[in-house]
Amino acid sequence: MLASIANLSMGPLLERFLPASGRLRGRAVAFALTGSAIFALLLGGGYAWWMPGTALFASAWERVGFALAVVVLAAFALLDSVLIGMHRARWVALKNVGHAVAKLGAIVLLAGVGGGMSLVGSWIVTAVAAVGVAEAGLWLTRSRWNGRNTDPALPRRRELAQFGVVSLGWMLAQALPGIAIPTIVITAAGVDDAAYYNIAWTIVAASLMMTSLVTGPFVAAASKPGANVGALVRSFALVLCGVSVVRGIGVGVVGPIALHLYGSEYAEHGSELLILMGIAHAVSGVAMLYGALARVARRIAYPMIVQLVASLVVVALVALWIKQLGIVAVGWAFLTHDILILVAAIPPLWILLRRLRTDGAL
User: DSSP states of 179-213 as a string?
Assistant: First the structure.
C-alpha cells in the first residue's frame, strides 16, 4: 500500500501522456521514477521509524531494509505504466511473469531459512532483479523510444497537473474499500470469518489484475497522436466483453470450486461471496469502457466523483449488513456498487461514443 501511495497515481498520467510526449519522453520517465523513489523512501522511512514503534522491526537495519523495499516495490509497479506508455506491453507481461516464476523459485530455495527471510527473498530480491532488468532494457533501447526527433503534443502544464491530481483522487477512492472492509470484517464478524474472507478475496484480487492488463495498453494506444481511435475503441470493447465473461466465470464458477482446495469450511463460507462477485465482474465491462474513454478524453473528474460515492456506499453497506449476513455482505455491497457505477456511466459513455462517431475523436 505504501508503494502504491508513493507513486502518486503517476501511472495513469504516464499511460495517457507518455505516447504524446515526444522528445520529452526520457525526461518524463526519469522524473517519474526519481520522484516516486524519493517519496517512497520518505514514506517507508517514516513508517519504519515512527509509526509502528519497535513492534515490527528488531533493529535499525530492518527499518532501512523496509524503506528500501518500499522504493523497490514502487518502482516495480510504476515501470508497468512506463512500459505501457511506450507501447511495450509485452515487456510488462515478461517482467511480471518472470518475477512470479522467480519469486516461487526463491520461496523454495529459501524455505529452510525462515519465514521472514523467505518472504524478503521471494518478494524484494526478485523485484530488485526485475526492476534492474527492465531499466537496463530501457537504457539500451533508449534511441527507439526517446522521441528525439518528435515534437511533444501535450496539453498545458496546468491541465497535466489537474489530470494528475484527479487521477490521485480516483486511485484513493478505488483503494478506500480495500482499506476499510478488512477492518470491518475482522471487528464485526470475527477472526474466523476474516480468514474465510481473505482467502476468497485472493481470487477476486487476481481477477482485478486482468483489467489493468487490457485498459492501460488501450489508453496508451488511443493517446498516440494520429491513432485510429474508433477502430481501437471497437477492438477494446470486444476485448472487454471477453474479459468480463472470463472474470465472471473465473470468480463466480471456478472460484467456489478452488475454495475446496483450502478446505470445506472455506468453500461453505466463501462460495456465495464469490458467486456475487462473479456477477459484479460480469456487469462491470461497461463502466470499464467508460473509465478508459474518459482517460483518453481527459474528462476524469466525473468518474472520480462517481467512484468516491460508490466506494463510500460499499463501505457503508458492508458495515450495515456484516453482522446479519456475514462476509456475504461484501458480495451484495460490491454488486450494488458495480450497478451504481454502471447506471452512472451509461449517459456520459453514450455522449463520448456519439462524439467519436461524429467527430472521429474524443
Answer: HHHHHHHHHHT-HHHHHHHHHHHHHHHHHHHHHHH
User: Does residue 41 contact residue 70 with C-beta atoms inside 8 Å?
Assistant: yes
* Alpha-carbon span 25 to 16, nearest angstrom: 12
Q: What percent of the chain lies above the pLDDT cut of 70?
A: 93
C-alpha cell at 165: 491530481
* Mean pLDDT computed over 134-158: 83
The answer to whether residues 174 and 309 touch, using CB atoms and an 8 Å cutoff, is no
Q: 312 falls in which pLDDT band (50, 70, 90)?
A: very high
Q: In 103-139, which positions are buried (b, 16+ CB within 10 angstroms) versus exposed (e)?
A: beebeeebeeeeeeebebbbbbbbbbebbeebeeebe
Q: Taking CA 95 as the corner, what is the angle to CA 94 and CA 98, rounded to the nearest 5 degrees?
A: 75
User: What's the one-letter identity of residue 302?
Assistant: Y
Count CB atoms within 10 A of the CB of residue 342.
17
Q: How many CB atoms lie within 10 A of CB 50?
A: 8
Rounded to the nearest integer, the mean pLDDT of the chain is 87
Is 210 within 8 Å of 243 (Cβ atoms)?
yes
Question: To the nearest whole percent, how much of the chain has pLDDT over 90?
Answer: 47
Enclosing H/E stretch for 63: helix 60-85
